[in-house]
Every structure is written in structure tokens, then in C-alpha cells.
Amino acid sequence: MKALDHTKFKALFTLPENEGRPVIIRGVDIIKTYRMGDQVTHALRGATLDVYKGEYLSIMGPSGSGKSTLFNAIGALHKPTSGKVYIDQVDIAQLDTDELAWLRCRKIGYIFQSYNLIQVMTCLENVMLPMSFAGLDGEEAREKAIQILKLVGLGHRLLHKPAELSGGQQQRVAIARSLANSPEIVLADEPTANLDQNTGQEMIDLFVKLQEELGVTIISATHDLKMLQSSDRILWIADGRIVKAARPEELDFNSEDFH
Amino acid sequence: MPKIQNQIKLPISVALEVVLQGLRIRLGRSVVTITGVICGIAFLMSILTGQLIKQGVSEEDAKRAEVDRINNFMKADLPTLDGKNITLIAAGMLSEVETRVLERIIADGAAGIKVESGTESQIPRKLTALRPVPRDQLIAESAFVLVMGGDTLPDRDWRVLLGQTPLALTTPGGSPAGMLDGQFVKLSRELTEEELARRAAQARKDKFRSIWIGAVALLVTVIGITNAMLMSVTERFREIGTMKCLGALSAFIRQIFLLESSMMGLSGGIVGAIVGALFSIIAYALSYGISMVAGSLPLVPLFGFGIVCVIVGIVLSVVAALYPAHVASNMVPAHALRSNV
Ligand SMILES: Nc1ncnc2c1ncn2[C@@H]1O[C@H](COP(=O)(O)OP(=O)(O)O)[C@@H](O)[C@H]1O
Ligand SMILES: [Mg+2]
Predict the structure, then answer these.
(1) Taking burial as the number of CB atoms within 10 A of a residue's CB, which of A63, B3, B187, B323 is the most buried?
(2) How far apart are CA B172 and CA B152, in angstroms?
(3) Domain assignment present for A1
(4) For all residues of chain B together, what is the average pLDDT?
């Protein structure tokens, strides 16, 4: 096994004030290559990053730069071609399928770019589904799901099917579902892409609240200026690599880079 | 430090709930899949029922021919039975053919059948013209004595009994211990060796044919069900992957598929067995007549075949779902996330 050498990327991406902060997710030299027949896509070419416990991290990058692929890798949804992912200092490559399932169920809440709601289930059932995987059932689960759906402003749409909702409403169901098992980490892949301005702002407020009040670590891929401004830290991904890190205060959001 | 645990195994009731919900919501889709099961099982059941009916009809034909033969034989000796009494000595349970011979005798105008009190239980209830009498009144005023039933003759003073009657006939295999050969006329007929061989050959041929047809029916069923199950996995790739992303265990996904397929197998099997049996019955009723089919179809084996068909439906559905369930439960969660899948 290759010995870990964090010094290289630490020098690059660890801002001085983050030195020594507990790391909840660490990705080291993640490479992901997709092969479809003859066609080979190098989606990640050695991405290295630390995510600190309790921070609100935004990841920026042009479409196709590998954001979703990186999310799936650090969220234990697929195995990288090479490289390491540590969640709470555990190398997830060492986990068996049951442990991975537990991790996905309890530790991480996912908000997918394409919602991925179960179309045959109502909003309420969609939110209750991860609860049932965690062993929470019946009235208790129902109460909790209703509470979360109210929190995202869908208290009046409990029994609707996803197809009966607008894109923004579906995304809110997805957010509610990600919070079902009170995860420590929320991974959100372009969560505001389909939301209107107001809803986008509500969602940012929700993220900030989750982070500040519950200490949830939030990682979100986004182009949304407001989201970037609300986050603690921004990473840039380009061509499958993390190329830059900064705090929003250091950035000029009026510059060309953001438009 | 590491706080990773094993994901809990869900109780089967959760899987059942998901399955029932899925079946209800995807009703149209489920109906298509179940129809595949129904077709296969109905095919199988109609073949089996057809065999039963054909066998029953040919047995019935043979019985009718035998009754005709015996009646003609008796008529040759006794042109008319009008108002006459007959004595019946039952040596064991009467066969269907023997009963019918007696029914025919009554229908031809015989006054009644005397039997020894105490032996009525060996004679089918549907023979209504029975008159139980004490043993010593058996023979008096009888046109003839019939000895029927498959067992050995009861211990009687045959010489005295038969000395008083003009005619004694028997249908069982043997006449009483060698002594009265001249007085007994044998009604039953032993099959010749050639006939026996022909029947055995026919039975072998029929058996081979039904096995062959049954195998084809099973194959059709397996293909239909496998195809339906594969389609239902492909269709739900995204949904299954999403569930895996949310922490569903592979075992849970497998359970969903196997539960779903066994329920489809059960419902499709029941409907298929009924449809298949009805189809065969109607088809044969059209060519042989309803009464012939109704009279010759044995209900117990028919029911047995029905149960076999339902079990076959369940087993085949589950077997057909094994591979799709394996594929689904082992998929990489992230595969579900590409919107173009
Ligand atoms: N499952 C896949 N199979 C093949 N190619 C893929 C797959 N997922 C992503 N890609 C390719 O990998 C690259 C990075 O994709 P992605 O991670 O989705 O980028 P982003 O989320 O930043 O838009 C793209 O070129 C995309 O086409
Ligand atoms: Mg993406």
C-alpha cells in the first residue's frame, strides 16, 4: 500500500486557520475513469481534498469538471478507480457492503442533482423510506417525516406523488429526505439549480441553520453566487482536480470568474 | 473513532409493504407481468386437464362398452326381465360397471333386486331398487342369481342355493372352488395378451406425449416469466439504485424481488390454473358433449393438478427472478444517479 503523503496537498489547500481542525472527509488522489466500450472518460484525475467537521463547503467548477463524480466517491456511492477516501478516518474501501449501507443511511444525507425521488411513493413515504432503512417505523417515523417536510415548506403536499410537484418542490422533498436520519454530513449536488430565487434563499438559510445549530457538515456543488457567499470555504474543481481553495471574504464576486 | 456499524436487517414486513405498494401502484405493469405467468400456467393446466378428460372419456367409453356387452349377453339368455326378481349376492364392493349393469336391468323392467340383509353396504347407494331379505329367502322366485363384486365368494351353501334357480351368473374373477363350474356363466372378460400389450403401448405413448407437451409448457412459462422479471428490473434500475444510495441492504433489494415474484407467481398461478382448466373443459365439452366430460372428469386429480400448477407458477417465478434480483441487489448505487439511465 502506498504511504499517504498529505504534506503535498496540505500546503496547497489547507488554509492557515484550518490547520489542526478535525477532518470528517478526506479524499486523497482520487482517480475515476469511466469506460464505456472504447470510450474512456477521465472524470477525476487525482482529486485531493479535506472537509472539516462542521464546515459549509462549496465546490465550484464548470459542467463536466467532475463534481458529481467526486461527490459519489466521497459519499461512498461508487469506488474510485484509485485513491483513498476516509470518512471519520475510516478508509471506506475497507468497509463491507453492510457497513457501507449503514454509512449511507445514517451518516450522510444525499441531495442528488436529478432528485432521484421514488416516483411511486408519496412525499411522505419518500422521506420515511431512509428512516425505515434505519429501523425507524410507524407513527414515530411519520411524525418525524411530517416535521421535516414542514421545515422545507411542504407540509401541505405530504400525500402528493413527485410527478405532481414542480421541480423546486421535488428538490425540497429531496432535501427533506436527506435529513431523514439526522445525518452528520449533507452532500448536495447542485441543490439550487432548479429552484427559484426565493426558494434558493430559503434553502441556503436552511443549510446555514443546519450547520450552525446542529453542526452538520455541508458539502454542496453549486454555481449559485448566494450559496457561495454563504459558505465557509470554496473549492474549485477543474478537469478532475481540485485547483484552488478560498474563503468567500477573499473573493470578488463581481469579477469575471463568477459570471 | 471509527463508529461505522452494520446496517440493520429490516423485518420482512417492510419489504412486503414496499412490494405490495409497488404492485398496487404499478398495477398495469404488474398485470402485464402476471399475464405472462397466467399464460404459461394456463397452458400447462389445460394440457393436464386435457389429459385427465381424455383418459376419463376413454375409460368411460370402455365402461359403457362393457355394460353393453354384459347386458347383451344376459339378454341372449333371458329375453325379458319384465316383473321379474333378481337375487344379488355381493362378494365385496360392486364396481362401477356392475352397478350400471344392475341399473340397466332395473330400467329394463325388473321388479327388484333381492340382497342378503347386512350386505347392502357393499352396494352403491344410487341403486334404489334394493330389497334386503334374510338369507333363506334369497333365491325363491328369482329369475336368476347374480354374483358380483371383486372379492372371493362368501361362504354359503352354494349347491343348495343354486339348485333352485334356473340361472346363475357371476362377474367376479373366479367361480367357487371348482365345484360348480357348469352352473356359472362368466360375464366378465379377461383381456387377451395382445390387447394388454396394445393398451400398455398406448399408455406409454400418451405418457411420453404429455411429458413432452408439459416440458414445452414449462419452457414457455419460464421464458415468459424471466422476461417479465428482467423488464421489471431494468425499468426500476433507478429506483433500486436510489434505495441503495439511501442505505438499503442488498439483501433487502433481493427480498423485494423474490417476494414480488412469488406473489406474482401465486396470483398468476391461481388464475392460470382456473383459466387453463376451464379452457380444456370447454374445448372438450364442445367435441364430446358436456355430460360426457362432466361425467368422466375426476375432481380430485383435477384439483391436485391445479395445486401443482400454482406451485409450479410460484417456483418458476422465483427462479426466474433470481438472476434479475442478483443484478439489482449488486448494482453500484451511483449508477442510479445518471439521469439518462
Ligand atoms: N457513469 C458515467 N459513465 C461515463 N461517463 C461519465 C459517467 N458519469 C460522468 N461521466 C463523465 O465524466 C465527466 C465528469 O462528469 P460529472 O462528474 O457528472 O461532472 P459535473 O458534475 O461536474 O458536471 C463528464 O465528462 C461525464 O460525461
Ligand atoms: Mg454534476
Answers:
(1) B187
(2) 8
(3) no
(4) 80
Q: Per-residue pLDDT for B187 more than 60?
A: yes
How far are the Cα atoms of A33, B62, B63, B311 from residue B70, in angstroms, in the given order? 89, 12, 11, 45
**Chain region(s) in chain B for CATH 3.40.50.720:** 79-166
Phi, psi of A36 (to 5 degrees): -130, 100
Does any ligand 1 atom lie closer than 6 A to the CB of residue A66?
Answer: yes
The domain total for chain A is 1
State the DSSP string of B124-174. -TT---EEEE-GGGSSTTEEEEEEESSSPPP---HHHHHHT-S-EEE-SSS
Q: Is A65 in the pocket of ligand 1 (CB under 6 A)?
A: yes
Closest residue to B334, CB basis, from A77, A90, A137: A77
In the reported structure, the alpha carbon of residue A63 is separated from the centroid of ligand 2 by a whole-number distance in angstroms of 7
Least confident of A44-53, A108-117, B68-77, B294-303: B68-77
Give yes or no for B111 touching A (CB within 8 A): no
Q: Is B239 part of the contact surface with chain A (CB cutoff 8 Å)?
A: yes
Q: What is the pLDDT of residues B132-172, one digit of tens each?
A: 887 777 777 777 777 777 666 666 666 666 666 666 666 55
pTM exceeds 0.90, yes or no: no
Which of A40, A68, A74 to mutate to test ligand 1, by most ligand atoms within 8 A of the CB atom?
A: A68
Burial class (CB in 10 A: 0-12, 13-18, 19+), A84: middle
**Gap from B17 CA to chain A (nearest CA, Å):** 11
pLDDT digits (tens, 9 = 90+) for A177-228: 999 999 999 999 988 877 777 778 888 888 898 899 889 999 999 888 888 9
B6 interfacial to chain A (CB closer than 8 Å): yes
CB contact under 8 A, B4 and A95: yes
The per-residue pLDDT for range B234-250, each reduced to its tens digit, is 778 788 889 999 999 99
User: Do B247 and A105 count as a contact with CB atoms less than 8 A apart?
Assistant: yes
In a domain, residue A142? The reply is: yes
A181 lines ligand 1 (CB under 6 A): no
Average confidence (pLDDT) over A144-163: 92
Which residues of chain B lie closer than 8 angstroms to A68, CB-CB?
337
> What is the per-residue pLDDT for B169?
65
The Cα–Cα gap between B332 and B330 comes to 7
Q: Is the CB of A33 under 6 A from ligand 1?
A: no
Q: What ipTM was assigned to the predicted interfaces of this complex? A: 0.88
Query: What CATH code is carried by the domain that includes residue A123?
Result: 3.40.50.300
- Domain-located, residue A101: yes
Adjacent-strand bridge partners of A28: A84
Task: Identify the CATH homologous superfamily for domain B79-166.
Answer: NAD(P)-binding Rossmann-like Domain (3.40.50.720)
Closest Cα in chain A, distance from residue B240 (Å): 9
**Phi, psi (degrees; rounded to nearest 5) at A135:** 95, 5
Q: Return the higher-pLDDT residue of B177 and B265.
A: B265
Task: Read off the amino acid at residue B92.
Answer: G
Query: Quick check: is A188 in a domain?
Result: yes
Pick the residue of B23, B246, B256, B338 with the most A CBs within 10 A to test the interface with A by mutation.
B246
